[in-house]
């Protein structure tokens, strides 16, 4: 059964990219943009959230990728193949490193180009112009863990159920389906 999408709720997520690995950060952001963390997810529907990333110039790569990784593009003219290392790209346009990594994890469809890409907001410094949606006291999402062990879940913030087996949409102290969580 699909959700008609008349009452889509868009949530604004704030992510601090300082000292986070590019690929691990991208694997956290891409599902949020698509809306895969929602029970109303449809692959052909626009149901994702808005993601604001700050401190894009402070991201990390593992290994020797700062000098070995190449970003290539073509200008469209004969002999117009251009390339930059990741270090040069960080100096020139640090937001493009994250944008290319995140959008590379999404399929190239009209849904991505028209709806998902505009909801990704990346800023170099700690300041962003979206204070109306994300006031001063908003905490950024947790950093992606280095290992897959533990109870990390990107959509629910790591709230475990009362028995410790599953995740709960309810905050601590709120009852859900007649069960009171402590």
From TrEMBL:
Residues in the signal sequence: none
InterPro entries in alphabetical order: Ribosomal_uL13, Ribosomal_uL13_bac-type, Ribosomal_uL13_sf
NCBIfam families given for it? rplM_bact
List this protein's GO terms for biological process.
negative regulation of translation; translation
Q: What is this protein called?
A: 50S ribosomal protein L13, chloroplastic
- Give the species this sequence originates from: Leptocylindrus danicus
In terms of PANTHER family, this protein maps to: 50S RIBOSOMAL PROTEIN L13, CHLOROPLASTIC (PTHR11545:SF41), RIBOSOMAL PROTEIN L13 (PTHR11545)
Please state which protein family the record places this protein in. Answer: Belongs to the universal ribosomal protein uL13 family.
Q: Which Gene3D superfamilies match?
A: Ribosomal protein L13
Q: What GO terms are given for molecular function?
A: mRNA binding; structural constituent of ribosome
For this record, the Gene Ontology CC terms, alphabetical, are: mitochondrial large ribosomal subunit
Q: Which UniProt keywords apply?
A: Ribonucleoprotein, Ribosomal protein
């Amino acid at each position: 059964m699909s959700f008609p999408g008349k009452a889509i709720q868009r949530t604004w997520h704030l992510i601090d990219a300082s000292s986070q690995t590019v690929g691990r950060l991208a694997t956290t952001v891409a599902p949020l943009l698509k809306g895969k963390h929602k029970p109303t997810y449809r692959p052909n529907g626009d149901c994702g959230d808005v993601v604001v990333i700050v401190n894009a110039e402070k991201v990390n790569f593992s290994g020797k990728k700062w000098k070995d990784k190449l970003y290539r593009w073509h200008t469209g003219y004969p002999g117009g193949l251009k390339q930059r290392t990741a270090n040069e790209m960080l100096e020139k346009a640090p937001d493009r490193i994250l944008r290319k990594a995140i959008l590379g994890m999404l399929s190239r469809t009209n849904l991505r180009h028209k709806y998902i890409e505009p909801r990704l907001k990346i800023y170099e410094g700690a300041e962003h112009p979206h204070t109306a949606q994300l006031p001063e006291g908003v905490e950024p999402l947790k950093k992606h863990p280095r290992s897959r062990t533990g109870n990390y879940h990107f959509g629910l913030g790591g709230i475990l159920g009362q028995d410790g087996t599953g995740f709960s949409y309810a905050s601590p102290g709120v009852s859900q389906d007649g069960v009171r969580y402590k």
